[in-house]
Amino acid sequence: MSWAFLRDLLSGVNKYSTGIGRIWVAVVFMFRLLVYVAAAENIWKHEHDEFECNIKQPGCENVCFDHFFPVSHIRLWALQLIMVSTPSLLVVFHVAYRENREKHHNQKLYKNPGKIDGGLLCTYLISLILKTGLETVFLVLFYKLYNGFKIPHLVKCDIKPCPSTVDCYISKPTEKMIFLYFLVATSCLCIVLNLSELSYLIVKYSKKCYLKRHMKKQQ
User: According to CATH, what is the number of the domain 15-218?
Assistant: First the structure.
């Protein structure tokens, strides 16, 4: 899978972000996207082939694997990366709309089309809320699908066509669990950064509005 589009998207959003937003972009790019491409993808590459059960009953191994891994960790992680980055497109599209509007009217309508104010502020806040919500949804999804954030060495399966309870072994469980913890930690860090940026912008522009009203009253 090519991640060039996601990389370009994050680079584009970085131009319109606050300081906290730039930290979020750095975390997603360095600690999630690069780690995924460089290491995590290879660890889960042959997870189905390396899943072994102590019986060779036809179909038993496939059914057990599907039961314990209904969705591949790595594919779910890739989907999470794409989904939490997509709301940033709202900001890019809004800035592009402002720039096209200025070209259409052939005059300067904004001091800076990329400045976070007015309608762009609302778009930016919505994108932060969506990113936070999606991060939370995926964390809950991971927890529900795999009964916690653990990868056991051994799982017991008694699903048909297995003739009895069989032992199935997961390859490299410790290594996979380390990456899973890393995934959870970076997701939590991104949630904290999004909430911090959301709070910062709300407080900043609330103070700005209050000062404007105060100045009008004095005048």
Answer: 1.20.1440.80
For the chain, the domains span: 15-218
Give the orientation angle of helix 19-26 with respect to helix 173-218, to 10 degrees: 170
- The pLDDT assigned to 113 comes to 67
pLDDT tens digits, one per residue of 174-195: 888 888 888 889 999 999 999 9
Q: How far apart are CA 85 and CA 127, in angstroms?
A: 9
| Virtual torsion, Cα 159, 163, 164, 167, nearest 10 deg | -70
- In the predicted model, residues of the chain with pLDDT beneath 50 are 1
Burial of 11 (0-12, 13-18, 19+ CB in 10 A): exposed
Rounded to the nearest angstrom, the gap between the alpha carbon of residue 196 and the centroid of all alpha carbons in its chain is 17
Contact 131, 187 (CB under 8 A): no
Dihedral sign, CA of 17, 21, 23, 28?
Answer: negative
**DSSP letter, residue 30:** I
The confidence score (pLDDT) of residue 4 equals 61
Helices (H), the chain: 4-14, 19-26, 34-35, 41-43, 60-68, 73-85, 88-105, 118-145, 173-218
Burial class from Cβ neighbours inside 10 Å (0-12, 13-18, 19+) for residue 197 reads buried
**Model confidence, pTM:** 0.82
The dihedrals phi and psi of 169, each to the nearest 5 degrees, come to -115, 135
Residues across the chain: 219
